Amino acid sequence: MSPAITYKDSSRQRRPGNHQNSLDAMKNEPPALDLHEDGHLETGRGDDRELLLQEPGFKPTRCPQGYRAELGSILLLLFLYVLQGIPLGLAGSIPLILQSKNVSYKDQAFFSFVFWPFSLKLLWAPMVDAVYFKSFGRRKSWLVPTQYVLGLFMMYLSSQVDSLLGEEGKSPDVVALTVTFFLFEFLAATQDIAVDGWALTMLSRENVGYASTCNSVGQTAGYFLGNVLFLALESASFCNKYLRFQPQPKGIVTLSDFLFVWGAIFLITTTLVALLKKENKEVTLSKEETKGITDTYKLLFSIIRMPSVLTFCALILTAKVGFSATDAVTGLKLVEEGVPKEHLALLAVPMVPLQIILPLIISKYTAGPQPLNTFYKAMPFRLLFGLEFALLVWWTPKVKYEGGFPIYYYIILLLSYAFHQITVYSMYVAVMAFNAKVSDPLIGGTYMTLLNTVSNLGGNWPATVALWLVDPLTRKECIGAQGQSCGTVAAAELCTKEGGSCVITLDGYYVESIICVALGLAWWLFLGPKFKRLQDERSSSWKCRRTS
């Protein structure tokens, strides 16, 4: 599905996504896991919290207190996660806007790199943890400057984004958009590292569990504001139909206005945090938390060299190839066939209760010694949904009428997405449970973060490749101009100049959907059993031998 309504598993699908991008959209999970779009998961924080609470040298200096005593800190943490979700939501909305401007799928593939920073932040997270100004605060040393740069960046981007998206009939500058939003997401990922770290010490021992709730609720709310609400208010047709008495040529807000307002909010709130909020310096952090940069990278390298981990990485990096066409291209194809992008975004709203309940239900089946059995059983059903979504795209133009689409079409689309989410979450929760099961408890935070980073990358790269392959697999003919073809952009322009038009005779999306499902079934049949056997490995095969 599209970035606006896909699950956050890499993502983008975040999440659609996704591009993982991107439905890459809103997810809650069991309390031990923190979800980040598009996907993009920050993992190991649950283990870090346990390490923090169980550290032998840790002695609480405050009396036990209820959440009411720290309500201000909880609300601040919640708001910081809301701010974090805004860039994720905005980035997820851009592919839908680009698709409405008829950019190529190769351009969409290039833009999908925007969703990679949240899956790659492990590369610079050790630096954020280890380098800081003690007098200012360990987390504020990164949070404050990063949010200032984000705010200034958003305000500057508000003056440039219209030209980047293409004004007055001009084509969007996809390269500049990609570079700009990649930096945007890089800053958001850095802010995420700082906020997650601060969450461990901002709250007392009794209330630290609320950090996961703040993460899930805050990011979901931020993504909703930056994606679903923005796309709805930016759409002239939606605003004229539901929010206005007199039709206007534009929506209530523009992307430029939205960026400027939120840039100002970033600057104001960051100033207040810098001046008024002090870090808790009474907490003694665990040895894992205070590891140096060099030691952390050495530890990561030692983990990934273990045979069991190498096998896991190789399998999980290829497991999601079969879903790439469905997750990355379907939503964009629906927009291409005339489904309003704001309607696709609004489909995420009724999914929120389902996305909250599903992980809780599925976790009951993945809590045992063999969580990957659930992954294996759900995979063929998710693959079959790839064919169902391809049929849905083929059916879309056949039910379209002058006023849009009938209500039964949206009901079928919503039900398809809902059942698809059951398979998505079954696989997602199973992998998270397995990662938690095999992670060495002595280095749980680093270990789980590495495994989940690889899992996210396993969704990112197939989505990018799937988008890139749509155009090469598509076949077009020039109708109305003899001797002309549509094999290249230049040839298509010449066909149009000669009075003809390019007509698709073979849509690469359908070809790709069939190929992906076939590859997915092959993985399930031949590599799936090997993947399941990983859960039968002895626990010693997952233990890391530390040199210090």
Description of the molecule:
The protein is built from 20 helices and three strands. It has 548 residues and is mainly alpha-helical. The chain has a two-stranded antiparallel ribbon. The protein is globular, with a radius of gyration of 24 Å. Residues 2-61 and 284-290 have low confidence and may be disordered.
Helical proportion, percent range: 55-70%
Relative strand content: under 5%
Number of E strands: 3
Instruction: Compute the CA-based radius of gyration.
Output: 24 Å
The largest sheet is: 2 strands, antiparallel
List low-pLDDT spans.
Answer: 2-61, 284-290
N/C terminus separation: 46 Å
Brief characterization of the structure:
The chain is mainly alpha-helical and 548 residues long.
Essential attributes:
548 residues, mainly alpha, two-stranded antiparallel ribbon, globular
Topology:
Blueprint: E1 17-21, H1 45-54, H2 71-100, H3 105-111, H4 117-120, H5 125-130, H6 140-165, H7 174-202, H8 210-234, H9 236-242, H10 255-276, H11 293-304, H12 307-316, H13 324-336, H14 341-346, H15 351-366, H16 372-399, H17 407-438, H18 444-473, E2 475-479, H19 489-497, E3 501-506, H20 508-533
Antiparallel strand pairs: 2-3
